[in-house]
Amino acid sequence: MNTSNQSNTPPKSIGAGLLVAFTASLCCITPVFATLAGIGGIASTFSWMEPLRPFLIGLTVLVLGFTWYQKLKPRTSEETECACEEYEKPSFWQSKKFLGIVTVFAALMLAFPSYSGIFFPDNSNATDVIVVKENDITKAELSIKGMTCTGCEHSITAALNNSEGVIEASSSYKSGTALVKFDQSKASINKLAAVVEKATGYKVTHKKILKEESLNQ
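Below the sequence we write its predicted structure tokens.
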């Protein structure tokens, strides 16, 4: 029986689009879920894939775009003439509904860095601010290798904020740095660097104590 292209969308092409989208997002998804699962040491495992991300995103769009084209393009007159009177309804896996679900899921994975922060509540150790002595407040900057997106930022920030003596912390994948304000009677810059490396797997390449006037910035 000959059926139209509309009922013959290959499940393999749908699966390929989903797989490429997932692969493109590994470098961003891994840090978040590794941290949430308590195995943050593997957070940087797929950071090497970041240079490939634009290519993989483009490939995802091409694969899913072609699949939609195959699904929606009108039948030729030859296909219409050859079509049987009895129409075989496509399975769910070949339907527009399933392709739509896959497309939405792929889009959510590709956009993951933009909303990854929702998985990380604000864990700043605000209670430390009340008891810390002003002379013990120190601010440091850590240069970190391997951050590629906001998922990496949240992973590192969460690790620092959960460390003893940390008052507040923030990180930026764009600058490749983390800023941390801490109580030097309870923590040290070396210990905080070790926390980042052990908890997330990212490498601290440089660390420095910032001048006193920068503490209020």
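The chain has two domains: 5-113, 120-214.
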